[in-house]
Amino acid sequence: MAHFNPWHDVERGTNTPQTVNGIIEIPKGSKAKYELDKESGLLKLDRVLFSAVHYPAAYGFIPKTYCDDNDPLDILVLCSVDIVPMCLVEAKVIGVMQMIDGDEEDDKIIAVAAHDISVNHFNDISDLPPHTLNEMQRFFEDYKALEHKHVTVERFMGREDAYRIIEDSIKLYNETFPNGAASESVEKTSGVEL
Fold this sequence. Notes:
By secondary structure, the chain is of the alpha+beta class. It is about 25% helix and about 30% strand.
């Protein structure tokens, strides 16, 4: 029986890569790390962060994207209100935070909620107050360090670089899942000996 999966069954947005749909997994301020269970499409509690840190922005993913870490492309969405998990947000892309997690590249797209007048005037990450980027960097480096994992925030880059990364993740998704969710189930069963 086919079921709805937010990763494969929600559109990326009508004006990609400038504006994308972000599916929020974790609200700003949360100490809980929720993530999409890829198989069921439900949200699961991955872990509770055991530190004083909390998410500096709403955190989620862009549907129908795929990256080298076998996950959809991550997105941080700045908004003046808390966005609940599994909420679909139209997000205006303004930049990207390039991270190395372990040995893998782990890019985080930075965006603003397109329909929030408190933030939608930001057009590029260079428009943001400097402490906003510092907060994001400190959060990811600190929470991973407390879990004895090494993360390095390599650099922040502007929206043109973010657009390129989004387009690359769409291309990889289309190559990996030519039939959307249907090809994911084929991929899972193809390695099984009958």
